[in-house]
Amino acid sequence: MNISLTGRHLELTDAIKTHMTSSIETLNKYNMGITSVNVIASAQTKKGKEHSMVEFVITMAGKNSVIIKQNDDDLYAAIDIAIERAQKALRRMHDKEVDHQKVGLNTIKSEDVDVKETAEAMEDEIVPVELDLYKPREVEDVLNDLKESNKMFEIFLDNEDKTRVLYKRNDGKFGLY
To answer: Which of 26, 21, 29, 23 is nearest to 2 (CA)?
Structure first.
């Protein structure tokens, strides 16, 4: 991996160069085939205040380049934030490559799928259940049933023909809509 460090309107000391180089070395753990990293550090004055800007251009073999620009009052902080952003971008690219299966259109076309069998198999998965929603119930009865079961909520009609929901809250209490 080629590393190019450039300073504009500021002198790069050995400590800054060491910090940049060690930060860049952490990008190797993603195995993305990084060919070169160009770092441009500059000092700018806006509205009477000095602040630092760091730009990372990460070039990878066979992939798009990653460009990260970061401004901060402190040069070391700008470098650290930019490296974190670069790591996040490389991690996302790495996860995309590793997690997604690359299936071509020809392999999908070559698979024989019987539509009727698939539809029948899906029909077997749906089991109709008779609802007890039409029976009016007392809130206390529903509360007792909910305490005894593993359910998180119960939907029922109360004596005034209103649809109500009794649910378990995270704090161990119960809520009623």
So the answer is: 21
Name the residue ranges covered by the structural domains of the chain. Answer: 2-94, 139-176
Q: What is the pTM of this model?
A: 0.54
Per-residue confidence at 56, pLDDT binned at 50, 70, 90?
A: very high
CATH 3.30.160.100 fits 2-94, yes or no: yes
How many CB atoms within 10 Å of residue 47? Answer: 5
Position 97 pLDDT exceeds 90: no
Arch. (CATH architecture) of 139-176: 2-Layer Sandwich (3.30)
